[in-house]
Structures
1.
Amino acid sequence: MRQSSLNFDTQFRSDITAVELFAGIGGFRLAADRLGLRTIWANDLSSLSCKVYRDRFGPGEIREGDFRELLEEVPAHTLLSGGFPCQPFSSAGKKEGIRDARGTLFQSIADVVERHRPEHFVLENVKRLLTMERGTHFATILGALARLDYLVEWRLLNAMHFGLAQNRQRVFLVGTRLDRLQKSRKNLVDAVKLAQSNDFETGSDIRETIDTPKNWRMIERHKARFETWGLAIGDKFLAQDPAAFSMARPAVFLQEVLEPTVGPEFDFTESTSKWLHENTPVNRFVQGVEILSNQRGGARMGYTIFGIAGVAPTLTSTTSRHYERYKVGDRYRRLTPVEYARLQGFPDDHCRVASAYDRYALLGNAVPPPMAQWVIDQVLKGD
Ligand SMILES: C[S@@+](CC[C@H](N)C(=O)[O-])C[C@H]1O[C@@H](n2cnc3c(N)ncnc32)[C@H](O)[C@@H]1O
């Protein structure tokens, strides 16, 4: 999976059916549409998200409600996608480091995989998943999926490597049903090697790693942090921190996606301007983000002033983050909802049926379609 190229093979793939869980405003849906897949079922609990989804994709395109109560409605499909909310697992079933996923939203995903056995799944989550509860959370997820006879690969990706001006690290977990691998390849290890051979600058190291039996460890004997890339099959996994991941530079910077004309409602209010003179100059780039000044080491949330020569910090659905301030020319202002859409790779008017205020949260929660598109494309090409 080479991150530098965003040239998609947009061959017509309407024979591939997709189901989108925890669909939100349809980040995976946009990706699937752009790749020519046919999304046949989608679900979200939030009526506002569903309103946006219907406006964008059609009135009958999403089923609103709690997914745990709608499992029976999910049709058979080829590709399952979803950016599921993080939810603590019960410690009741804790056994040698792997916890009980029963009753959680994640478990409902595993239930669908078990029932329909899609050829592939693509799941997305926050970076913190790799370290939460000393890795127990991720181990539970990995174990539950890999035991269903899927080859599971995960990778930490950054939106800034996908043509977006945002430092947004997300874990993608992709699965391919083992019999699908075996059909097109002589054996599993060959398949893994082939699937990886074009992926990394350090491809030969990866192949050697996969070939060495001692590198495969029991999932339940994980460390407190899962590495940024790995594979799992059955109850075993191997993992690495490939250097090539962090080398790519962003291709687009914040200043290139800003709206040329922005109303005064986005400017600092007089009261918020007052604390500006208390800020200490920083003037450096951290993970591609230009930090101009902050308050004593940046400890106080919302007091950082960002420049526009780098990429934006991670957009989130948290209200306080929408008020982060950027120095644009002589003005200090926050980002507009249109700029949020651009930084996430959505069309400017994607959330037009939501209020300006709500658009920040909807977009901040979404999976960037260009990232999702690249991952799905890679998974399908692995066939
Ligand atoms: C991280 S967001 C996913 C956003 C989505 N990938 C997108 O591109 O907009 C998680 C979504 O899960 C939904 N959700 C939370 N609990 C749910 C449940 N019990 N059933 C269905 N959806 C749920 C939330 O409403 C939210 O839209």
2.
Amino acid sequence: MARVLIAGCGDVGAELGVRLAAEGHTVWGLRRRCDTLPPSLHPFPADLTQTDTLRALPPALDVVFYTAAPSGSSADTYRATYVDGIRHLLAALEAQGHAVRRFIFTSSTGVYGQTSGEWVDETSPTEPEHFSGKELLLGEQLVLNSTLPATAVRLAGIYGPGRTRLIDSVRQGTAVCPDGPPVYTNRIHRDDCAGVLRHIMHLARPDRLYIGVDDEPADQCEVLRWLALQLGLPPPRRAPATASRTRSTPSNKRCNNRNLRAAGYVFRYPTFREGYAALLNTMA
Ligand SMILES: NC(=O)c1ccc[n+]([C@@H]2O[C@H](COP(=O)([O-])OP(=O)(O)OC[C@H]3O[C@@H](n4cnc5c(N)ncnc54)[C@H](OP(=O)(O)O)[C@@H]3O)[C@@H](O)[C@H]2O)c1
């Protein structure tokens, strides 16, 4: 059984940790406020940006997940989380002599700058325009160039319990379909995020990079229309593409999960239909 640290143990980390603890692994959840950690996880209160709080990590760690997310949307918070935090944790692990056999970092498909509906995979160019993608890439490089056996998983938009932004927008009538060609979006259910991370932990020789998305990149409009149909509501209104584009408008690419499936992972929610149907059932 492994001794596992989940650094930045929030929504995905806690779901992962509960599953690993149920299998008999010893799991520590590291975050600044540990009061909401599930009871089967050992709390490890620490701030990844403060090296002094990492001076005495839990002993003899085998597996480390880095699932921290920035609490703000500035370049500084992204740098602190994805660059400084990773650097500090890697240095602490090395200084304390942990024989880590797997370090797994949850990166993002935001490292891709493609915006014309192109298919992308792990070999595609990564030339993000936005600072978020740039900082994530720096984090990946730190992890993959470290002395530890490391894997970065590029997750797409996470949805699941408590993460109902699209459903809410359809319910409230604020969802808008841009006119024009499809705008492709990629997503993964929170439970599959945890499942993918667990699966990679157990692989004998995982790749260094995986794209973590479900089987179907989908036109944002198709997803919204499908949700409206399930909710018995009229389809979202259409608007000129320029008027409906916002800072959070999807970047329009199609992420290929072939490598993850070739590694043997079987999705619980292969497309948005299964995932949102399950979510809508719990909200009914
Ligand atoms: N949201 C998406 O759609 C999306 C898409 C692609 C990739 N990802 C990545 O997926 C991973 C999992 O995301 P999630 O949804 O589980 O995030 P989440 O629920 O927001 O959890 C992130 C955790 O990081 C902790 N944290 C943040 N700063 C910290 C610090 N300085 N020191 C210690 N802990 C810190 C937070 O706890 P405290 O505040 O208590 O410290 C929180 O528990 C993240 O790496 C995220 O970047 C997310």
